[in-house]
Design a protein that fits this description.
Length: 307
């Protein structure tokens, strides 16, 4: 049994990771923002003093879709940079055996060649609407590698693509594209308005597949190189919208607001490194994962749970 700290342990991915680790018999502490504000050194230090972990999964983040990133560029840069720096330094001071830092696909350059390969991460600047967030996360990769080199901290850095699944954030102000589409299509029977022109492509990873990847990496991987976590499936936002419409039974009109930004032109990861280094390959097809997510939303939304 290992004493494990999961920052962001009450969040979308964190809560499922905590459940998985506890099911394997580990002593797991799920750190939540209401108890510890990790942007503050004193709170972060108190967390480590309280828990004395041997392994740390750093999942805590302040993040959202394009709208949230445009509204909070300074906050997203500061909060994600400070949380990661505090966790890294405290992992060193407490001599943790393993630190798993979860980054983001947003670290990649806007016009990275497709599929995105880890070796090309520094070949350009991130997409503008995500740049403050993505740049903060890039800095954590540099820090993780530097702490390994100088202090021997066994830290690894993983970069998941867009995540989705049951329990996702369905708040239209801060949600990502899949939960936003599901909520809009379930609740708005006549017309919905989506940002951009629908041409960008995205890749999505089902939440339970991500948890599996985190566990495998923690067990099997020990190296400085960042690793992509993805499904290998690429789909345009327009095709995604049509698929969600089919699965939700939406029969209204989809309007595209081309005055709004598209974000990254394309996103598709090269996932070969994860398979080679720790045997991870995503198991959940997008259609199946979307069906589960739609079912969860209907079952957990009062207006639909009793209908």
């Amino acid at each position: 049994m290992t004493r494990i700290l999961v920052t962001g342990g009450g969040g979308f991915v964190g809560s499922r990771l905590v459940e998985r680790l506890r099911g394997e018999g580990h002593d797991v502490v799920a750190a939540r923002r209401r108890d510890y504000d990790l942007t503050r050194w004193d709170d972060a230090e108190r967390l480590f003093d309280d828990t004395r972990p041997r392994m740390v999964f750093h999942l805590a983040a302040e993040v959202g879709g394009i709208g949230a990133n445009r509204a909070n560029p300074g906050r997203f840069w500061y909060a994600n940079l400070m949380m990661g720096a505090h966790i890294l330094e405290l992992s060193r001071l407490h001599a943790v055996d393993k630190l798993v830092t979860v980054g983001t696909v947003c670290v990649y350059p806007k016009h990275a060649s497709v599929p995105f390969r880890e070796d090309e991460l520094w070949n350009g600047y991130p997409e503008e609407t995500n740049a403050p967030y993505g740049t903060a996360k890039r800095a954590l990769l540099v820090g993780t590698q530097a702490y390994r080199q100088q202090y021997g901290v066994d830290g690894i850095y993983l970069m998941p693509t867009g995540l989705y699944g049951p329990g996702d954030n369905f708040d239209l102000e801060t949600s990502h594209v899949i939960p936003a589409l599901i909520r809009k299509m379930v609740e708005s029977p006549e017309e919905i308005v989506l940002w951009g022109d629908g041409s960008p492509t995205r890749e999505f990873l089902y939440v339970d597949d991500c948890v599996e990847a985190l566990v495998l990496a923690a067990e099997r991987y020990d190296g400085p190189d960042p690793v992509n976590l993805g499904s290998g499936e690429e789909i345009s936002i327009r095709d995604l919208a049509e698929l969600v419409a089919e699965l939700t039974g939406f029969e209204g009109t989809i309007a595209w607001d081309t005055s709004k930004p598209n974000g990254y032109p394309r996103r598709k990861l090269d996932t070969s490194r994860a398979e080679e280094l720790f045997g991870f390959r995503a198991q959940t097809p997008l259609r199946e994962g979307l069906l589960r997510t739609v079912a969860w939303y209907r079952a957990n939304t009062p207006a639909y749970a009793t209908s």
